[in-house]
Each structure stands twice: as structure tokens, then as C-alpha cells.
Amino acid sequence: xxxxxxxxxxxxxxxxDQIEQIHQAYLIASEAHLGQKRDxxxxxxxxxxxxxxxxxxxxxxxxxxxxALLHDVIEDTPxxxxxxxxxxxxxxxxxxxxxTKLTKIEASNKAExxxxxxxxxxxxxxxxxxxxxIKLADRLHNMQTISGVMPHKRQRxxxxxxxxxxxxxxxxxxxxxxxxLENLAFAIIYPRRYRVLKKAIGQSYGSHKEVMxxxxxxxxxxxxxxxxxxxxxxxxxxxxxxVYKKMLSHHLSFANxxxxxxxxxxxxxxxDCYRALGIAHSLYKPVPGKFKDYIAIPKANGYQSLHxxxxxxxxxxxxxxxxxxxxxxMANSGIAAHWLYKSGDKxxxxxxxxxQQWINNLLEMQQNTSSSLEFIENVKxxxxxxxxxxxxxKGNIMELPRGATAVDFAxxxxxxxxxxxxxxxxxxxxxxxxxxxxxxxxxxxITSTGAKPNPAWLDFVITSKARSGIRSYLKNQKRGELVAxxxxxxxxxxxxxxxxxxxxxPDVISAAxxxxxxxxxxxLYEDIGLGNQIAxxxxxxxxxxxxxxxxxxxxxESKPLLIHGADGMAINFAECCCPIPGDPIVGFLNxxxxxxxxxxxxxxxxxxxxxxxxxxxxxxxxxxTGDFRVALQIEALHKRGGLAELAKAIAKANAFIDDIxxxxxxxxxxxxxxxxxxxxxxxxxxxxxxxxxxSTAVGVTRKKG
Length: 705
Fold this sequence. Notes:
Elements: H1 2-10, H2 16-32, H3 46-57, H4 62-69, H5 73-76, H6 81-88, H7 90-98, H8 110-127, H9 130-144, H10 151-171, H11 175-189, H12 191-225, E1 232-235, H13 240-249, H14 254-258, E2 261-267, H15 270-283, E3 285-286, E4 292-293, E5 306-311, E6 317-324, H16 325-333, H17 350-367, H18 372-382, E7 387-391, E8 397-401, H19 406-413, H20 415-419, E9 421-426, E10 429-431, E11 443-447, H21 464-495, H22 506-513, H23 521-530, H24 535-546, E12 561-565, E13 571-573, E14 585-590, E15 594-599, H25 605-608, E16 615-625, E17 628-637, H26 642-652, E18 656-666, E19 669-678, H27 681-692, E20 697-702
Parallel strand pairs: 2-6, 12-16, 13-15
Antiparallel strand pairs: 1-2, 3-5, 4-5, 5-6, 7-8, 9-10, 9-11, 14-15, 14-16, 17-19, 17-20, 18-19
Helix pairs in contact: 1-3, 2-4, 3-4, 3-9, 4-7, 4-9, 6-7, 7-8, 8-17, 8-18, 9-10, 9-11, 10-11, 11-12, 12-15, 17-21, 18-21, 21-23, 21-24, 22-24, 26-27
């Protein structure tokens, strides 16, 4: 009850009836958690009450504080969501449910279980952003009282805090909570480094006091002389983990970082920020290239301030931040500074809108990612933006992480723009889509209706939105191709039974599907395409269903499956023999991968033929298109310009080199292995003729196996 008295004192900003409702929630939570203890040995109710206190310090709304008091009751007690709905309404029940871990799901390990729970929380955040504010307060109190937790568990929680929760607090502009979470986690993960750094910083500030006082006095006098009213100047402390990160990322010594004196100047109006900047620049010489205007172009989390670096007395560097009181409040508390629910004003402030946009991006990313573990890795990438600011042709500002490419920009505009982009115009110049973008550039993306993402983009995109968008498209494309291949294989098997898939009533297909684990025809076709289901067996099941199973006539020839091109994802051309149009070929259903195509004389085919039910009769279609990989081995004279002569001969034959490897060298000769891309057998013969005419090639053979 003592802790509740502390909470009650902090609630003075609320109405009497709201405080009474919070007291009722406390009583229900106390009764629900009766007899439960924390790892520290304290009564469990101390935890939700402390979380509510943290939110009350932020002046959060009564619904958030009630949800904080009840946030563990569904997970750890017999209390149901329905009971919370009946006592406190749907909104509070949804907040509590959004904070409840998924305890009944089947997950292969703790990491997957955590990832699934986090995914659920993101979904709840998208409905009500207060979910994450309560969760951050919950994590903060758990970190403040982590000493009672087992050491291995302590390490895991601290790392999770550093990887996920502190960056989320930063992303929402909640610097105070971010800093405390980082320092608490730092102390657990690197206890010795934490102690050494804490002692060094304490000693450093002690020796800097006199210089700090001199600089503060000179700045104050300059502002008074210029009649700049209501100006507050304060030395800015560097927090432990921030110093540690800077030492690592910039390869700086502790002395290099602590030799910089930092000040924050708080003024009354936005215009005064620029006046204060001018006065500071006239007092001390500014360092070129170190000025940043985050007022005109705020950071992604809504942070606004002017940053500059000056050369102070005796040439010592001075870092200065200049902002208004409102901006300072926003910098420290983020979206909680002007909370949407704390008054009758339902207009969202800029920070709240930015936070909601970020959460909507997470939601889109979640929808494009099938694996919870992959989703949480994408979130981690998204949480560490060192931004560049870019412009659309219409002058709109886009923020992307440093190192982002034109493809990242296209996906940031819209997933459909990313999926169909074909070129980029950067500052009016056409440049490759892989171009890394720089601050202040104007980016125009050119799209084409028939275009689609290139899997090679995954090698250079850096934003999670681009990565998940590309993967989602490719996955859906591959599924479409597998479904088409499965239908083709099943139709071929049915035609051997003198049946036609197109003419079979859908009800018959549905009846046959009921005999499998699938619900939809396309799921069955996809599994056939993957080689997990044998088309012949499924065809016989369908024939049995319609009562028209017929023996294949001994004279009836099975029709081959036609191979039309090299671009699909469901058909794979075996690397062991590299089949090309013109080669006699055999198909093999490789379970989980689709249809593999081999040459008839492939060294591996004899072994594969033992699984006769998986071998298919295939042949090249007359209209086959695409470029196909083929392997050549050339015994060549080891001489200057020899490799260039071979490459020139290949280019002359209109083929291109995909890969090259120079092997053994002896007695003036060497073995050169090429992987080339050709159209068909006649094209390959033309390449071979050109190579054999060179003075470098002694012998040219095609490699299989």
C-alpha cells in the first residue's frame, strides 16, 4: 500500500473520478497477484504499481495507468480479458491483451516464442500506440530491479533491451527512457567497462568545472548584451553508453571524447534559436561542416534542435544544441511529451504522426514477412537509422538510413513503386538503382508496368522495408510458378488416364483434396510442383473419385512435359550437367525444390532413375527462350593476352561469361574453366568454333559432372 501512496501523489494532474478508477484497478490487481512473488522476493504487485508510477511521471492518461496496473493479470493469473472488458471497458482490455505474451503457441524455441509475442505486440501497437509506452515503462522497471534475476537470464534480458527496447524508445523520441535503459543494460553486459567508464567520467567532469563555468558565463553575457530574453544555458552531460558507443564507432580514445565541452541553450521562441546561433557564432569561431538544422528538417523521431560545434577558449571544441522549451521537452520525452490522450485535444502532434507512420511501416513489414524470427531481425535493422535526408521531385522530404540506395528510396515511397522500379534519376542524372544516396539529393524513380524485383537487389538494399518487400514479391512469384508447374504435372498424369483437368468438375477436385492435408486446390498444386506430392498418385485419387479410372493402353505414349524457358523459379537446371536447348533431357521431381532438369547422359541420372516415380518425360518446347548456363574446360597456352583472346572469341559469338576459373598451370599450359550463358546447342557450337580458331586454345570440351 506504501507504493500506491507514492502513485496517488503523482496523479494530482487527473480528475477525482479518474483517480478513483485507478484505485479500483490497483485493488483488482492486488487481489489477482496475491501470494505471487517477484525474483527479487518482493510482492508481485510492486511491479505493476511501479510501472504505473513511471507512466504517471510522464502525465499519461488514466487508461494507460489502469492498463499498467493490470498488464500481467491475463498472463499470470486466472483473470480473463472478458472480465477486464466488463469492469474497465474494451479499450483498456485491448491494451492489456496487447501486452500479454503468447504463452500457448507452439514454438520450436524461446527465441521464436519471443519473436511471435513481439509480433503480436506490434499488431497491438498499430491499433493503439500506448501499448509500446506501457511496455517501455514495464521494461524500465524490470531493468531497474534485475539484480534478483539469474545471471544467464539477466544477460539475455539486457541484450534484448539494448537491441530492441532502448532503440524503440529512441525511435519514439523518448531520450530519458532510452538513456536509462542503455546504461542499465550496459552495466549488465559489460560490468567492468561500465565501472571503469563511470569512474573516468566522474573524474573528467570534476576537472572540467572551471572551464565549463567560464564558457557558460561568456555565453550568458553575450545573450544579455544582445537582449535575448529567457535564455537558459546548461552543461550537457554525456551518458555512459553514449560515450562507449562513440569510442567504438569513431575509434576514439576516452580523452578525445571528453575533451569536447557540451552545452544546451533553451530559448523562448523558434526565431530566438537562430538569433542565439548567430550570437554564439560571433562569440566563438564555428567549425566548418558541423552545423545541422534539425528544426527545419526534424529527425525521424520528431527531434528538433540546432547543432553546432565551436572553437572556444584556447581552441577547445564546444558542442552546442539550441532549442525551445517545447523542443527540449519533446527531445527528452518524445511522443509522451504532448500525449494525444491527456486532454480533450484529439489532434495528433508531429511526433505522434511520425511514430504512427513508423509503426505502420512495421505493420507492412510484418505482413510481408512469414517468419517471426525474420521479422524481428528486420525490426532490429530498422531501429538504427543514421539518417540521410532526400527530396522527391515535388520537394517532399524522405528520411532513409545512411547507405540507402535508390531501390530503398523506391520502396520507402511505396511498395508498388519499389516492385516496378527500373531506373533512378538522381539530381537529374540517370544512375544505377544500386547507387548509394547522399544527403540533400533529389530522387526520381522511373517505373514500368511489366517490371518486377530482381533477386540481386537483396545484395545491396539496406532497409527492412525494401528487403521484406522484395522477398515477399519473389516468394509470391515462386508460389505462382509452382502452382502452374503442379497443374501442368497433374494434367499430364491425368492425360495418361485419358482425363483432362480442365474438364473435371471442381467438386471432384475438392473431394480428392479432402483425402489430403490441403484445403485449397492451389496448395495441392504447389506441393506437386515442389515434388512433395507425386502427380501420378494424385491423378489416380481423382480418377477413383469420379469412378473412371482407366488403364493406360500399352500402345498409348505418355506425353512429355514441355520446357519453355530459363526464367522460372519452379524449374531448376542441374549444375552437374548444365542442360541447354537441343540436349536430350530428363526431369526429376526434387522434393521441396521443384523440377530439376538433367541431360540424359548426366553422370547422376542413373542414380536418380532408381526413383522412377519421380522421373518425368520432358522435352524442350519449340519456342523455348532465355539464356542457359553451360560449362566449358579449355586447355590453353599460358601466354600474355591469352585470356583476353578467349574472352574476345566468346563475345564475338554473342555469348557472355558468367564465371571463370584458372586451374592448374604446367609446362606453358593452363586449364581455364568457363561458365557461359548461351541460347541453345547451335549457339554453343558457334562458341566452340570461335574458341578453336584462337591461337590460345589447344583443346575445348564441354564439362558434364
